Amino acid sequence: MSLIVIDGIRIPTTSEVPGILERALPDPQIVIGRSPQRFDAWCYAACAEMVINYCFQNNFVDQCAVAGFVKETDCCEDLPQQCTESGCRKEQIGEIFFKFNVLDDELKSLISLEDIAQEVTDNPGRLIEVVIDWDAAPDQQSSHAVLLAGIIGDYVFVVDPLPDAHYHGWHTHTELSNGFGGGRWVMTWLGLKGKA
After folding, report:
1. N or C: less crowded end of the chain, CB within 10 Å?
2. Which tens digit of pLDDT belongs to each residue from 35-86?
3. CATH architecture of structural domain 21-194
4. Which of 117, 136, 113 is nearest to 126 (CA)?
5. What integer pLDDT is reported at residue 18 of this predicted model?
């Protein structure tokens, strides 16, 4: 199962936060620069880049280096098709964090609002990575990785690496649990911090 976004297919969002409410909500607890994924299948690489660079602010890691690790080839200088034609398997996300010295706790489930609050409001706050499986035909698999960086009430702040930032911003926990109306939240990585 790869983490991919199929080009040209937009998963519908049925209940986005209204624009007025979005502007009324504060910044998330963790403010990071959003790194758009460079290719359709690189949501995993963009999320890893943001996590790694948040954990090690003096040591920049580019998403092409993350993709190169997953694909076992150079995805920064040369860009062979194998770098961009597919994403990664879900279990490889933990391997990415291990390779780049980020501690993590992997859960094969969604987490509660209380767990999100504990992570993002700690000192320092910790980003959370989430994988959404999109609803697809039985013989197809399409997933998307996003980060969580804030919480207020029932709302969580999603950092979406899609170039158009389609899911970026405040969403209810229920919306996220239901894959923004087009799937379901299936995996979570907590405790994301640099190894001492």
Report:
1. C
2. 999 999 999 999 999 999 999 998 899 999 999 999 999 999 988 999 999 9
3. Alpha-Beta Complex (3.90)
4. 117
5. 52
- Report pTM: 0.88
Listed as ranges, residues in the chain with pLDDT below 50 are: 1-2, 4-16
| 3, 52, 54 from 59: Cα distances, Å | 26, 9, 9
- 8 Å CB contact between 185 and 130: yes
Side by side, the strands of the sheet bearing 183-194 are: 102-107, 183-194, 128-134, 143-152, 155-159, 169-172
Mapped onto helix, strand or coil, the DSSP state of residue 171 is: strand
Please state the domain extents for the chain: 21-194
User: Is the Cβ–Cβ distance between 141 and 2 less than 8 Å?
Assistant: yes
Two structure tokens written together for 42: 């690189």
- Looking at residue 3, its pLDDT comes to 54
Gyration radius of the chain over CA positions: 16
Q: Are strands 169-172 and 155-159 parallel, antiparallel or unpaired?
A: antiparallel
Nearest of 158, 161, 139 to residue 150 by alpha carbon? 158
